[in-house]
Amino acid sequence: MRGLQNCYRFLISRRSYSSQTWDSLATSQQVTLPLNFLHGRRVDARGNTSFKLIAPATGLPLRSVSNSNDDDVQEAVQVARNSFRTWSKMSGFERGQVLKRAADICRKRVEELARTEVLDTGKPIWEARYDIEGCADTIEYYGGLAAAIAGDFLQLSGGSFAYTVREPLGVVGGIGAWNYPFQMAAWKSSPALACGNTIVFKPSQFTPLTAVMLGEIYQEAGLPDGCYNVVQGEGATGQILTSHPGIDKVTFTGSVATGSRIMATCAKDVKHVTLELGGKSPLIIFADAHLENAVKGAMLANFSNQGQVCSNGTRVFVEESIAEEFLSMLKTRVSKMKIGDPMLEDTTVGASISEEQAKIVLGYIDIAKKEVSSVLDLNSKICSVTNI
């Protein structure tokens, strides 16, 4: 438990970074250029409010980012609707070729994308590379699927028949979470584009950088102007986007509370909506399990991305007969985790997304320490239910 606590206190001290890498990233064009993406190019937002972009690993402010206002969202949606007329008429094969080229470009730019993702999120560089490579695979997958999208033909009696035609919905409004920024943009845009839709995407205000880079990659791959658009902003911008009458479908990843509000907003216009929300995922380990693999699974389920994953195994139930051995093996592995500069190849744990989030985690650790100590005092034995 002490190792875990130190892991999160690392962010609060956060003064161990002084490398030239961080300085060059903080002043790169990915940070300094406009962060909205409309008409196939970067543009400035016109809102009169803004938010500070902070590098999680260093705690240093990178820049001020303007919130997109009603006019920005209106323009983005209109651009997407205009582009829809052309994109939706292209064959699935043609759309798929664009996505496949985009996947190839992602693979060529893995290092640049991964380093910008580390600047944005504080996650270790090796994990960021893995994310980007997975996104390239996803974009390629939907590129290959695009040509196979087809309706059905049904033979009826008497020589009659029925058939169905799959048609694009229109403009998709996407809102992403901060834990996997490039993945959010890729996973929400590539299936929408494959099906002939266009998209307006709003990244989390904590991680605005790589979604714009994806727009430039799509542009280089041959995606027509206006098919993929990015508007930056906080919650108010998201509300403008999801309530816009020109949006035909909303896809959101984030908290249950925000998802509930988005569902209510979409219900007013009977919009299509897809929600990926947070949850509690149990991991149950029985005595007949391969214990080494079980420990690896528990590590993966709880420490990936500094534990900032909506599908984490946040409740680990261990059968009493193996609980002591499981805990011993787990502590050994946790003690070997390296907490430090996420740009270093051997760093296991990087930074939480913000100081506020780190303090929340520390609070939970304090609660856990109190609860565990009270349980361990009971007959001096390991509890059959172990929370990691």
From TrEMBL:
SUPFAM superfamilies: ALDH-like (SSF53720). Residues 46-375 form the Aldehyde dehydrogenase domain. The active site is at E276. Transmembrane segments: none annotated. The keyword Oxidoreductase applies. InterPro entries: Ald_DH/histidinol_DH, Ald_DH_C, Ald_DH_CS_CYS, Ald_DH_CS_GLU, Ald_DH_N, Aldehyde_DH_dom. The keyword Oxidoreductase applies. It comes from the Eukaryota. Keywords: Oxidoreductase. Belongs to the aldehyde dehydrogenase family. PANTHER family: ALDEHYDE DEHYDROGENASE-RELATED. This is 4-trimethylaminobutyraldehyde dehydrogenase.
